[in-house]
Amino acid sequence: MKTVVQLSPGLRRVLAPNPSMMTGPGTNTYLLGEEAVAVVDPGPVIPEHLDRIRELAPRIDWVLATHTHPDHSPAARELAEACDAELLGMPPPPTAHQDLTFEPSRVLTDGDVLATDEFRLTAIHTPGHASNHLCYLHEASNSIITGDHVIEGSTVVINPPDGNMRDYLSSLKRVRDLRPDALLPGHGERITDPTAVIDWIIDHRLAREAKVLAALKANPTSTAADLVPEVYRDVPEHLYGWAERSLLAHLTKLVEDERAAVDDRRYTLLPE
Fold first, then answer.
1. Which sequence spans correspond to the domains of the chain?
2. Which of 13, 36, 61, 255 is most buried, most CB within 10 Å of its CB?
3. How many other CB atoms are there within 10 angstroms of residue 111's CB atom?
4. Which residues make beta-bridge pairs with 123?
5. Residue 257 phi/psi, 5° resolution?
6. Angle formed by the axes of helices 165-177 and 194-218, to 10°?
7. φ, ψ at 67 (rounded to 5°)
């Protein structure tokens, strides 16, 4: 994966050097415009990455975050202050694994537009992976910057209480129905078949939900931890901790859908 890629006129991708199991090759930072630049997701505070961004964009007027997980937004405040730029996005929710340094000078809501002579960017509220998650539609290329809503080559963790599976599936359908030509993920390469990829994610999540329902039917009054070995037989045991978080998201959705009940962290199917 190249460090700097020109995706379309006035739209560049810069890869942060933070590869890991959870971030893949690293976090993608997007630069919009050539004269007055907007930077989306500058990632964690890595001086060499921030220097590269400023080298590519001597004038930065806006810094945006898709959400406030530690691999996406911590550098946003530092970059905005250094460039006297406006900091845009949604504040972090009061839950674990959030970048609490992110304090936007302008809070974005669904449908807000950042328009310049060079580009038009529309915020799309896409809760699910994170309650404050935003995607951004780049109108000229009909591409959507997706942060961790959709990433290339893998699924994302939905981690309650801030992560919500029901919201996630709804947000996926909304992005699909916008009919973008491409998705620009927070991790991995550009996705050029958005409808097929999103449909696969939805089908995958619903197939996993069906496994949860079957496991609950066979094992009434179980905890999430009890069900992991059966529902996630395809996952290595050292990943069971993350699997349990996703399983809890599925169980929470079943409760919200009134298909299951929970008492003292034990789940039971309700009669159909």
1. 4-192, 202-269
2. 13
3. 9
4. 136
5. -80, 0
6. 160
7. -165, 180
